[in-house]
Amino acid sequence: MTVAFVLSGGANLGAMQVGMLRALAERDIAPDLLVGTSVGALNAAFIADRGLSAEVVDDLERIWHGLHTWQLFPPSPRRLVTALIGREPALFGDHGLRSLADRNLGFDRLEDAGIPLTVIATDLLTGDEVDIDHGSATDAILASAAIPGLLPPVEWDGRLLVDGGIADNTAISRAIGSDAETIYVLPCGYPCALTEPPTSVASTLLHTMTLLVHKRLIRDIREYDGPAELIVLPPPCPLDVGPMDFARSEELITRAHRVSQKFLAVDGGRRRAPADEIAMHHHHHLHHH
User: Fold this and answer.
1) Structure confidence by residue, pLDDT tens digits, 3-35
2) Is residue 183 left, alpha or beta, with left meaning phi > 0 and alpha meaning psi from -120 to 50?
């Protein structure tokens, strides 16, 4: 039986995929193929090289504990000014993300990954989905994670690519195309319990992107009617982590692990209407203590 893991994007909320992966590893569920978008591509690439085990999840968790916002979005006043007058395509450079990928990937080219890995990006000109399964692993991940306005587009085969979350299609279709019989979807969710919208440019862009990605994922799961079994792990809820806040990774990982354990304990995570597990909703007047 072929098992695919689909890891979607969600910036700092990608930490919760570590908890989900831990719950899957505990049940000896391992992927035969991986599809990753944006931060999900980074998490997927880490597993593609090493396989899925408790030790691998420990290592991935350590990486997340060490992440800081300024590392991935390095502030440069000069760059902000040149971006605003149109001489730079993004508010931040991607050197922080590049060194993170270079340091933690065990392979240089996607085709060398131990578990087949496809990284999803979007053609900036046409909006078409671009499935990358060969070539530089770091470039592919950078392209997939290039949130428009925040991180610069990446040139690939003569096209400019940005975050895969914008493409018309999500990664689920790619997993189906590879004849997977069971597809585990690991979404990052969205902050359903924020009491007010974000205020900075960067946070607003990230938050908007997170909502867009999640809505598209729900639609795709609802429309999906295929031979493969779709198991959608629910993100922890309520969630009130702001878009640029990388300081709460440990809490996200722990909560996601607990939620996933409980979810998988009932019929292996099979549900009649999988999209309902992650439907859009909002918690009013919820205060985090």
Assistant:
1) 999 999 989 999 999 999 999 999 999 999 999
2) beta
Place of tokens 């719950």: 23
| CA separation for the pair 93, 152 (Å, rounded) | 7
Token couple for 29: 């569920």
* CA-to-CA dists, residue 148 to 49, 100, 143, 161, 288, angstroms: 28, 20, 10, 10, 31
Tokens of 252: 């996200």
Neighbour-count burial of 229, counting CB atoms closer than 10 A to its CB (0-12 exposed, 13-18 middle, 19+ buried): middle
Taking the CA atoms of 216, 238, 250 and 235 in sequence, report the sign of the dihedral they define.
Answer: negative
DSSP 8-class letter at 266: T
3-state DSSP assignment of residue 244: coil
The letter for the amino acid at 248 is R
Nearest Cα neighbor of 42 from 104, 87, 90 is 104
Task: State how far Cα 183 lies from the chain centre.
Answer: 16
SS3 state at 247:
coil
Is residue 289 scored above 50 in pLDDT? no
pTM of full prediction above 0.85? yes
> Hey, is 273 helix, strand or coil?
coil
CA distance 45 to 107: 9
CA 177: distance to chain centroid? 20
